[in-house]
Structure formats: C-alpha cells, structure tokens
## 1
Amino acid sequence: MSQVLMPKATAVWLVENTTLTFDQISAFTGLHPLEIQAIADGEVAGGMTGLDPTTNGQLTKEEIKRCEVDPKARLKLSVRDVPEPMARSKGPRYTPVAKRQDRPDAIAWLLKVHPELQDSQVAKLVGSTKSTVQSVRDRTHWNMQNVRPRDPVTLGLCSLKDLNDAVDRARRKAAREDAARKKAGLAPLESEVEAEAVDPGEADQPEVDALDSEHHN
C-alpha cells in the first residue's frame, strides 16, 4: 500500500470528523495508537490543521462510512492517478492572477485563526505583502467590505504543510520570547518604562513608502 500523505494531519482530521477507532486511524496513517489517542486528547499536534483525505483522493466518504460501522474493518487507500506535485523551489511565491482576489480572504482567515503568525509569515504564505496584511488587520483594505475569512489551503494559496510549519515556527518563537520576558522580569528594566510612554499604535504603523501593488491588480 502507498504511503499516506501527511499522516499526522490526516489523523487529526479523522479524529475530529469521524467515529473511526484509534486502531483504525492508526492502521491507516501508520502512527502509533497511543499517538492517535494523544491527538484526540489535544496533547499532540495542537493547533495543527487537519487534512481531509477525501479531498486529495486518498479516501472516499463511502470507505470511511464502511469502516465506521465495523470497528474491525480497515481503511483502504484509494489508488491515486494524479502525479505527486514537485517540490517548490525556494523564492517568492507566485500566485496565479485568478487567485489573487482570494488573498485578502485568506489573510483575514489567518489573522483570525492563527493570530500567533507574524505579518511577514502571513504575507509569505499567501504570496502577498506586509502592507496588505496590515490593511486587512486594521480593516483599511480597499475592498474590506467584501473580504470574508477563507482557509488559504482550501483556496489553493498555500499547502497544509507550509501552514503547519509556519504555525509551529511562530509558536516556538513566541515561547522563547515569553521565556525571555519572564527572565528579564526578575530585574526592573528602564526600557520597559520608556516603552510605556510610546504610543503602541506608532510601532505598528506600516512603512510610509511601502506600496501595495495588489490594489492595482
């Protein structure tokens, strides 16, 4: 049997959206049953976006239903006729013109669901700019009245792997910064007093010379 694509993300989706047993999900994804249980308990893969195996042709809804009614049954991976996508080379992400209008929606979704992501990460994920991310964040985007949060993975603007990797990096960085702040808090810092006198809104303003070319697309 072929290898399941992104087994952990697939397991997350199966745990959240089906009544399959831990053993059934384990047998299909190749993960240990205890890891499946840990996913269900929120101890593993916390915050990871699940991957629906029916949307990429790995499973059919009928196959899932067949195994849900029979705990002893085992899921059978569907035959994939679609070739595996080639790995994307590093560099700026190109977004097809037809999908560029979806980027503000994707940005709104990322800001809402994953607030731990930095603006630069959000921009990189959807192939946008930090100024556009900022305009969606502060609701000054030129088309804000039509923006509605939509998953960038579903829109095809980024892969689930890229999204989960970005979230993991953001959370690790936040944890390191939190630990550093707690350590620094053991001694009073004059810089903290000075920071309180600064208008926080000024620090978050986008650069004046940053141009959002997307407004003209």
## 2
Amino acid sequence: MHPLYEQMETSVFERMSLAAAKHGAVNLGQGFPDFGWPDEILKAAANAVVVGSNQYAPSRGLPALRAAVAEHYGRHHGLDLAADHVCVTSGATEALAAAILATVEPGDEVILLTPAYDAYAPLIRRAGGIAREVALQPPDWRIERAALEAAVTQKTRALVFNNPHNPTGRLFDAEELSAIAEIAVAHDLVVIADEVWEHVLLDGKSFVPIASLPGMEQRTLKCGSAGKIFSLTGWKIGWVVSSPEMASLAARAHQFLTFASAPNLQAAVAFGMAEGDAWLQPMRDRFASARNRMMEGLEAVGYAVLPSASTYFLCVDLAASGIELDDEAFAKLAVEQAGVAAVPLSPFADQDKPRHMIRLCFAKRDDTIDAGVAALAKARELAR
C-alpha cells in the first residue's frame, strides 16, 4: 500500500459533511451553493444528452468548449488565446493534478501559500515533489515578498498560486501579484494558478489573471472551473489554460487521469461560456447579499468575522470571538451539540497551522443562513 495514501486522513470537507449528515446539522462546511445556476445551461445539458453524442469526447475536450474558454478569457481579460491553449479536465482539482504532474519531478520543491486548499500538498508529494509552505498571517492574509523570497531555493521548480484565495476570501492586490510574478521570473519558476474563483467577485471587485503580468504568459498553467462560474460544482468540468506547449504536457498527464469528461456537460458549458456573460453580475449580487446576511448575523451574536472579497467563504476568528477552544474542538462541538457544520482551518496547512479560525460557506439560501447563524449562536454559548 502506498504510504502517502495509507497515512492520509479523509478530506476535512468530506469529514464535516459526513458529520453534518450524521447529526442532521445545517451544513455550512463544504463549499457548494444551493442557488444560483442558470436554468438555460441545465436545459442545454439535458438537450445534449438526447440529441448529442454520448460516447467518449476527445481527451483534450470538445473543440467547441476549448474555443469558448479561449474566447471567454479574451473578452474578460484580454488574453490572446486559441483552442490549442486549452485542455478540458474533470474539474479543477484534476486540472491541478495534471498541471502538477506535468511540471514536478522527484526532488523538486513547490511553494504553497497557506492556508491552502488541501489537495495541493498531496498532489505535489504524489509527483515526488516537496511542498514548501509560506504562511499568510491573519487577519490580513497578505503575501509578504521577503517571506516568499526566503522560501526559494535552488531546488524550487514551481509555485501554486490561488487567487482569489480559498479559504480566506482574499483577492490579492497589484503589489502582491507583482511579487509573485517578479519572483517567478527571477527564479525561472512555473506558476500553477488556481483561479477557479475568478468570477465570484463581490463589492465591484475586478480580477487580474497572473498570466497577464510581464513575463508570466509562458510560465503559467491556469486552472479554471465551470462549476464555480455557473454554480454547478457537481458537473466537474474544469480546464488548464497555458501556452500550447505547456497545455500539451498537461494534456498528456490528463489522458491517464480521467481521459475525458461527459460530452453533454461539456457542450452545455460551451453554451454557457459563449452566452453567459449576462449571468455573471446577478450571480455576484446574490452571493454578496448572502455574505452580508451571514456576516451581519454572526456579528450580532458576538462573532469576529474577517472580510471576504471573493469565493463562497467567510472566516471567523474564534479567539477574537471570546472562544478558547481550538478550531477542531469547536467544529466538533458545533456539529454534534449545536447542529451546524463548519470547517476548521488547521487542515489547510501542515506547518504554522491556523488553530483559532473556522471557515463558513455563505452560498446558501436565506433560511439556511439564518438556521446556521442561530446554531452558531448556540455553539458560542456552549463553548464559552
């Protein structure tokens, strides 16, 4: 048995969702919305099952979807892309896996900014690489150039850069983006850019892809997600976007991971990418309203809530909320005794773990948010 998997714990998202089901709790843990998807895209997928192909799609993705992804980023970010820059994958986590396997050789070091999505480090280790963590510090979660520079060694091959950032909800600013780009160029690093939250922008914010910065186009593997753009996380349609040469390397890794994704879902996403710009702002407005409702509710019952400019997530500082329990103990109490599931932040790092923070998903209907806040009010009283 492979020791990496033999010793690996169940994902914190799966663990808390199972606990929510077991205890009949409100699930504010796992990050999926219960509203927001465009019905037109669902109809396009249903129609494609009936009138389209139900056999293997081309491994790199339906030509229509690859072209639609390239055109979408041309419209939104001014990137000069074509279909040969795109490889369609079974979700963004598979895109990350393909990008990492195509980049990392045994002994290579890869920098992670923690807290980080918990798939990064295991994928790096499975490729034979070594994850080097640079801890972002609350409450601001800023990228400090000196700390990033200090993590680079002669063995550093790549940097995984998640923007907007899960779990903190940070949208990194121009100074921070410049630090990433300038260090990558100076040290000839590949940047594996997890940019799945690029359209889930709140408060009128705008997104700048790291590939658009000077010197970054040829060294960036961008990972994107239709599930996040259209609130259809279960569809698991993602992509890698890069130079034709790097995209082809990722495609070679992808062909031995999932080979291809469901053609009807690809066709529906192609429709959504080509026709869906008008759906983006209503989606953002609804998520902003949900965030505000949860934040105001939590603050009213005594929680210290950190800002969130993007993603579906809010972070709560337990210590600043007058709670002495660590994140794991509080999450256990909340789901078992108060009836609400939250995600502790400590599993998002291997070193310098943030043990006084929890993450909550606000992409929920009003009644779910209200029930969750009421349960968290109970949890706070039980924990004090």
